[in-house]
C-alpha cells in the first residue's frame, strides 16, 4: 500500500479530529507507517522529525524499548480488569509513586483515559466537595483568559478558545475568565513578574466579591498551551495559591501538557513552590503510548467523600479507569525519569536548542521567541491567514513536523532529541520560514 492509498481510504472512512475534512481535498493527510525515536516514517520511506511530540504526548521517543517491554510484559499477565471493587499491581504502584512525586501532598489518585475527562473529574470533585462540606452555594468555576482544558462539554465550559467554544455556547455552563498572566500582553517596560502580579489583581477582585459561590480556579501552570504557548511568571501561581487559600477556593492545576518535566521541573507548580488541591495529569503520563489520565488530590478532599453514605462518595467512572497496560507504561516512564536524570539532561538539551535558535530570533519578522524547559515558541509578524497550513507543508518538505497555532510556531520535541536532530529541527524550521517570507 502506498501513501496515497492510505490517504484516500482514511479520508473516506475516518473522521479526523480538529479538522475541516474538506481541507483534505488540497492538503494531504500524512500516512504514518512506523516511528523510531524522534522520527515518524511514511509508507514510501520519507521521514518527519516529530517536533510536536505527537500532540505533546511523547517524551522518550517512538518505539522506546523500555516502554514497549513493560507493556508487553503486562499484556501477558493482565490486559484489563474493572477498577470498581477490584485492584491490581500497576495501579497501586503508580498511585504510590505519583503520590511520592508530590511528596505526599496529593496522595490519592483517581483515573480516567484522557485529559478532558481529568478536567471533568476535577470540576465534579470540587463541586461535590463543597456540597459534602455543607457549602452547596460554592458551584462556580474560574479559569484564565485563553485557557484550554479539553473539549468535552464540561471541560469546554472552562476552556476559553473561541474557535472551539463559540459554536457550542448554548450547551455550556457559564464560567468566569480572569485576566491571563501571559507576559506577551505586558505593557512596554513592564516586567514579566510585575505583569503576573497585575493579572492576579483581576483574580483577587473576582474572588473578593464571589468567593461564596466559587468552587475552584482551574489553570495551566506556567504555559497556556493551546493559547499559543503563552508563558507566565511563577509569581502568578504563588499569588493564586494565596488567594485560593484566603477565599477558600480550590486550586486545580491542569498539568496535562506541562507535567512530567515539560517545563523543566517534574510538575510545573514546583517552580512556584506551591501544591494545588487537585492536579490533572495526562499526555506525557504514559510517554505517549497509551491513553491514561489521573487526578491527584489532597487528604482533605479525599476525606470529604469518605462516609457511610454512598451518595457522598465520588460516583464517577470510565470503563477503562486505571487500565493495567496504561499504568504499566506510566511506571516505565517513571523508571526512565529515575534512571536517566531526565530533568538535568533536558536542561542541557534546552541550552543547545536556545543557542541554535538565535538564527530564528534574528529574523526581522520573528517576535517573542521564548522557552520554558522543553517548549519553545515564537510569533511570526505579518503572517498570511493560511500561514499555519503553509508552514506545516513547508516543514514536511524539510522532514520536520511543525503544527503552528495561528501565527505561533512552536517546538515541543521528545526529550530524547539528539544535538544533530535538534539542529535538523531548527534548520528545517528556518528554511520553511524563509520559503514563506
Ligand atoms: C490536551 C489538553 C487537555 C485535554 O486532553 P485530551 O486528552 O486531549 O482530552 C486538557 N488540558 C490541557 C492543558 C491540554 O493541553
Protein architecture, described:
The protein has about 425 residues and is α/β, with parallel strands linked by helices. The mean pLDDT is about 95. Helix content is about 40%, strand content about 15%. Bound molecules: pyridoxal-5'-phosphate. Pyridoxal-5'-phosphate (PLP) binds next to helix 5. Pyridoxal-5'-phosphate binds next to helix 5.
Comma- or semicolon-separated keywords:
437 residues, alpha/beta, Aspartate Aminotransferase, domain 2, 7-stranded mixed beta sheet, 4-stranded mixed beta sheet, 40% helix, 15% strand, binds pyridoxal-5'-phosphate
Helix and strand arrangement:
Elements: H1 3-13, E1 34-36, E2 39-41, E3 47-50, H2 53-56, H3 65-77, H4 89-101, E4 108-112, H5 115-132, E5 140-144, H6 153-158, H7 162-165, E6 176-178, H8 192-210, E7 214-219, E8 223-224, E9 230-231, H9 235-247, E10 250-254, E11 278-281, E12 293-297, H10 299-305, H11 324-340, H12 342-356, H13 358-361, E13 366-372, E14 375-380, H14 387-397, E15 400-401, E16 408-411, H15 419-436
Parallel strand pairs: 3-15, 5-6, 5-7, 7-10, 10-11
Antiparallel strand pairs: 1-2, 2-3, 4-12, 8-9, 11-12, 13-14, 14-16
